[in-house]
């Protein structure tokens, strides 16, 4: 049982969080500002502190400094309302500080409170769990994904996977196939990589002599995925005039090879994927509406890596272990390096993280143990972070806080209600901070 302290002026949040923490078997105290926290810490010792970054009477960073002076053994989890806070504070708080983004789920609090036991497993070199033999992650959004996979795997419904480039849609398709325990294979094809002339042959097959170069009969992916799973990647890149043929195959579960006349019955679940979201699908008109409803009987939105940053260190450990195994090396991550990885937004998602780990591995001394991380992870496709969101050495905590408030207000065109929501604080607290820094126009 742990003794937990909540420091947050959001009374609704602390009430709910306190109930969850008590339900998990721990004792909890809650305060709304720094002074109340100082008073409690003077006579009490806590194992874990959940701390809001911005409080009515100052920044939560002041409390971290106070705890360091006390040599407190407490683990600290900073609670923020927007990913930019986490990025701005990268490296400032040290390895004993984690981060969580509001709104929080029970799993988030439970995972944070179990930090010590997870560290012990890491020391014992117990690798992370591979859900469905291929998916890695213990964040709340990933557990929600696992639940959806388990439920839909018990049916034969077609599935549409949506998510940004690099999130691992094909790996999720593999997980669905594994969970379904079907007899047939997983067959994958990329609809965006095929010419208009060849896509019909790829999907449905062709007969000998059907067109120039068709020197023999070919079975299409629908036939090859019999009693299994067909994965259609980048399905929204399929030409519109080919989509009625795919729709007919889904509706009738029969295909006709190009150049043939006989209908061939097929039986497979279709898992399709696109990097477009719902809004883009509606506005771009790259997918027929009737085809969408056939493909997306059960749509799944795969979260980007920045929304499950607690999984980044797990993925980095796995990628490094795989490279060590392949090349006979013994490189290990340092705590500060994992913090750097977790604090980057990874616009290219898991694919970009894997590439960064591979590059760092190549640049490292294979005879040693240290990983040579580059000074910057940015690629030509990275989102360029504004200078106003960076932190330089020598800035005070108040400077950092002012900088964050300024950047947030600029982003929302001065809308203080929306800015407070993004920062994860009450509007009253935001106004208090604005008045404290008299150069703000409150």
Structure in words:
The protein is an alpha/beta fold and 442 residues long. The protein has helices at residues 11-23, 34-43, 60-69, 83-88, 106-113, 115-123, 140-153, 169-180, 199-204, 221-224, 243-252, 278-284, 289-295, 312-327, 335-342, 349-363, 397-411, 416-423, 427-436; strands spanning 3-7, 27-31, 48-52, 54-55, 58-59, 75-80, 97-101, 159-162, 186-190, 205-206, 218-219, 228-233, 254-255, 264-265, 268-274, 298-301. The protein folds into 3 domains: 3-123, Response regulator (Rossmann fold); 140-301, Rossmann fold (3-Layer(aba) Sandwich); 305-363, Orthogonal Bundle (Helicase, Ruva Protein, domain 3), CATH 1.10.8. It is built from 19 helices and 16 strands. The strands form 5 sheets. A 5-stranded parallel sheet has the order 2-1-3-6-7. Strands 9-12-15-8-16 form a 5-stranded parallel sheet.
Short description:
This protein is of the alpha/beta class and 442 residues long. It has helices spanning 11-23, 34-43, 60-69, 83-88, 106-113, 115-123, 140-153, 169-180, 199-204, 221-224, 243-252, 278-284, 289-295, 312-327, 335-342, 349-363, 397-411, 416-423, 427-436; strands spanning 3-7, 27-31, 48-52, 54-55, 58-59, 75-80, 97-101, 159-162, 186-190, 205-206, 218-219, 228-233, 254-255, 264-265, 268-274, 298-301. Helices cover 43% and strands 14% of the residues.
